[in-house]
What we know:
The structure holds 2 protein chains of 2 kinds.
Chain A: H1 9-22, H2 25-52, H3 68-86, H4 88-102, H5 104-108, H6 115-133, H7 135-146, H8 153-180, H9 184-208, H10 210-216, H11 220-228, E1 231-233, H12 234-254, H13 261-282, E2 288-290, H14 301-308, E3 314-318, H15 325-341, E4 345-349, E5 368-372, E6 375-379, H16 384-395, H17 420-443
Chain B: E1 4-15, E2 18-29, E3 33-37, H1 44-52, E4 59-64, E5 67-68, H2 71-77, E6 78-81, H3 93-102, H4 111-117, H5 133-146, E7 151-155, H6 163-178, E8 182-187, H7 190-196, E9 199-204, E10 207-212, H8 214-225, H9 233-240
Parallel strand pairs in B: 3-8, 3-9, 6-7, 7-8
Antiparallel strand pairs in B: 1-2, 1-4, 4-5, 9-10
Helix pairs in contact in B: 3-5, 8-9
Amino acid sequence: MPVTRTRSPFLWLLDKEWRELLVSRAWWLLLLGMGPLVGVSFISAVRTYAEVSGLNGTSAGVGEALAPLIGVWAPAFSACELVAVFLLPFVAIRLVAGDRQSGALKLELQQGMSSFTRMAAKALVLLVGWLVAMLPPLSALLLWKSYGGSLYAPELITLTVGHVLNAGLTIGLAAAMSSFTEHPSTAAILTLGFTVGTWILDVFGAVQGGWWERAAGYTPAALVSEFEHGLWRLDTSLIALVLIVAGLSLAAIWTRLGIPVSRRLWESAALGLLAAVGIGACTFLRASWDTSESRGNSFPETDERALRRIRQPLRIEVHLAPEDGRRLDLEREALVKLRRIMPNLQVKYISATSIGLFEQTSAGYGEIWYDLAGRRTMSRMITAEGVLEAIYSVAHIAPAAETDEAVFRGHPLAAPPRGAGTIFYGCWPVLFLGSAILVRRRFQ
Amino acid sequence: MESMLFEVNGLSKRFGAIEALADVSFHVQAGELLGLIGPNGAGKSTLFECLAGVLPCDSGSMRAGGRPVSARDRRSLLFYVPDGIAPWPKQPVRWVLDFTIGFLGGRASAREEVIEQLALVPLLHQPVGTLSKGQRKRVLLAIGLLTSQPALLVDEPFEGLDLRQARDIAAALRAHAAGGRTLFLSIHQIGDAARFCDRFVLLSSGRVCGEGTVPELAALAAAHDGSRSYDDLEEVFLALT
């Protein structure tokens, strides 16, 4: 049947990229792996959740503080993180490097469409491909609901967005690496190497503290961890978007084969500079939203109201080493929450060593000093309550009485993961395998 | 005299220490069948890629109608079909032709004619990656013939084809040239080029050794040699390179 030119070239390009994704073995393997991986995590999480909630005669009282986000959804969706690191790069690399390898790029470049538009089409299709891959974890929501479990939309949307952003980072990185290199295997090695590099940065940040620790706060793993806790930070989200756009733009620059390498290098340097400025600007943004039902990233509302009344800058000097467990607890339990409420907060860590083991006997080690408008107080408490008490003391504010309504009671659910094995180990793999066979047969 | 479609002046390209093209200059006339001939490694593909803008050249210019050709002008002036590629290998030939029309701005009206001329009907449902070298070459030629630019540059159009196929494709190319399209073909088999083309650009080690019709090149070779006369393109080529 004769073709009519009613579709725009961009729609033709989208059609091509979608067809290339459909014939990609890497994508079908990713889909095949997603069901069982989600299944393992979901079944294990639901079982543990049920036991803690009182299944099989265990103490039901423990379950009162259980939050499905932490107990079920963070582990169930962790399969997405695994797949985004180890399988998604191959799908993205195939889609970006395939054109160069087959020679199609030389034909497509003669069309005159901007390389940025071409890369945007690839990214769009990869995003759709990733959303399809997220169907198994999303199906777990229905399963959980069928058990009588509670769903809280804001925290689930946050979690999903976190994993989409993480996948976007992988796509941006893989696209950039594919455009630099002649062979997809080199691109795969570089992409995985970069990811391992971010893990090393995480470890280095935990050991060294300081700027390393700050930089480690923006790695994909740190990003996902925040979203898993229902914390949606504007700075990390925008930084992720800047990095995604930078990666795709870099890929677009390096797939313009007709442009001299020296010019592409200058353009890359300018892009890097622009991205660095953008990232730097984003780090000054303080807006964040605690979308968790348990308000796990926030102090009680009465305390938050009291803290907002403090206008002067609060300085906290923490004498704890980077690897000291108390420092991690202090960060998670109190400082993360405090930063969201008090924009004028300055935290300074002081330690002579990274592990702190041999500093325990030093005078002043373990002390946390609070300084507000020249008034100082010291505490060694690392809990949220302890930190609040010290701040109220230095600010001369009477602590607000906690109301009963503000306490999250949790959603205990003593139900075993019925039917989950069949769905995740049977239905999803069969569905994806069947679809793969049908699609490939259509193309053959 | 036929009008000039475009001219190339002082085109040079290096790959590190290797000089792939050195001060290449020639012109292309509208509606002609121009052959770019030279041995393997002469720089034919590099020249085509530089002209098509898929490879940056170090220096040189392209002019059409007395004006420098911009990237946008180049895209509307010529289309280049590389040799030895298997574009969109998992997609069926039918879709590749439709994509050429839809994305590359090809001529939908020429679709059936091109399919028939290049005997592509039995291949329409086969993925490009499963085709033989000769079949793939026919698909690549179909892509080129469907495009609408006034000049079509084809790298090694007869490579991988048997005698019958080569004759059929030569006839198809001639039919398109008769329609006013300029064909600039890179051919390393000088015999094929002599049978097919009107005029020639001789390229050896990245340098243009001669440009013109067979009699013009023969005269050039005779002047170069100083004694004997030539009437065969192969001998002319050997004398000039």
